[in-house]
Sequence to fold (338 residues):
Amino acid sequence: MTGDVDQIPACLYCEGADCEPFLDGIEDRLRYVSGKWRFNRCKYCGAAMLVPFPRAEELASFYPPVYTFQPDPPSAGGLRRLIAKLEYRFFFQHQYQNQVRRVLATATPLPAHDPPRLLDIGCGRGLRLLGFREHGFAVQGTDFEPEVVKYVQEQLHIPAVALDVDGLSKAFSAEGFELVTAFYVAEHVPNVELLFRQAFRVLTPGGWFVAAVPLADSTQAAVLGRRWSQATEAPRHVSIPSQKALHTVAGKVGFERLTLKADATSQTAALVGLSLMPGAATTHCESPDRVKALLSRGLAAAISVAAIPWSLLDAYVLKRPAAGLFFARKPERQPTSP
Fold:
């Protein structure tokens, strides 16, 4: 564990300094970074901040070599490759397509451009971009890991660049995209407002920013507590926003038409499976103990299916989903007076 044990950062969403204990005794579910952490919750907006808060130069070292799902892992044996293909076909591909449909149903209308241009910040292996490309978008991606950017470029033939949020202004001109997405990125970055401002800058007037995030004010967070998979992503998750926190930071930046919709049910239900079976993570499937990890993954899948009614209840009755798609629109340019 690194950083200052007594450090309690100001809220990354509303800049409030008044926080209270939220979750304590958190350990990395990937067993990649040793130590224990806690999350404190902002009393104003409800967002959770990691304590001790890591230094910016430490962040990259928290990620294992295999972190995101790959449908064709090159170093895996035949059985592992078959399982990965089945996982992609029956879970991940369905989830990505569902997310694409949800984005396009709410982020409308888009400013006119043929074809519409999309930038995905933190694109990972870019598999979700395939769905947007099928819907006619000219897609580009960014990620801070050069290895996954190479995969996007060479295997998917999608333009992508390796950079962090700070580098967006140098890599992309202003007002160059009608849609900007960031799937499960905000909770990883130490400057959330900068992420929103960078998205605002590269959007054309009337364009949409869509951020997929875990939510600290969800029923899953309340019930599962320190076992919740989005908390045990510490120290890679340096914050977990609430619905109010997202509205606060987006409004401050200048976005309008702010709304939050539940993420795909398969995604939110899977968080329950990962919470109860942390050994099922993709990272463990590429470890020497991969057989145990694959068995855990099967059990986690069964738990996830059983959790679907809970996820539906959270999303459509309680309105407290474990993860949401947050929509924010850049105002249209006002006509100048004659």
